[in-house]
Amino acid sequence: EDQVTQSPEALRLQEGESSSLNCSYTVSGLRGLFWYRQDPGKGPEFLFTLYSAGEEKEKERLKATLTKKESFLHITAPKPEDSATYLCAVRGDNFNKFYFGSGTKLNVKP
Amino acid sequence: NAGVTQTPKFQVLKTGQSMTLQCAQDMNHEYMSWYRQDPGMGLRLIHYSVGAGITDQGEVPNGYNVSRSTTEDFPLRLLSAAPSQTSVYFCASSYSGSDIQYFGAGTRLSVL
Fold it and tell me: What does DSSP assign to residue B59?
């Protein structure tokens, strides 16, 4: 069964304090691992797609990496505006089905 | 740019009532989907559609019906609401095979 587990559930950082969020997955035939950002009261917003182990993507202070079993979202020198819930999702053999994790709620204090 | 529009934003139902959650997109996307989001459980796929006239079940389809008569609209129907359907519902759309799903702002539903 395709499954995604994210940790930690919540993370509190001081502004400038770098850290990483984890996404562990099991999927039959990975056809993409996705990271989304969700602000309170809004729908998720796409950040990255990763396809194969060793792949990395960057956007501003965020860098996503992928291994055969997990993905990390590294946040370098975060700012308060990076506070949000970060969701991880996978797509497997059924190309039309996406499986999401429960998210990591990030709070960056000034 | 409207993107994905969901209505209503909030709804309170009594057990056994029926209602339709509306979702419309103006990007000519073939793929549309419905998710529910519950605390600690993340987003779970309810139903999806790859084009007008084509729908399929997701992870948690029981208690929900969908149809897709146009490219733009993908309504979600609750025929007999139950308290277990209290949740936040999100609609999403994308080009067929695309990585990027565009989400609406959500409908917060309470079933009493």
Answer: S
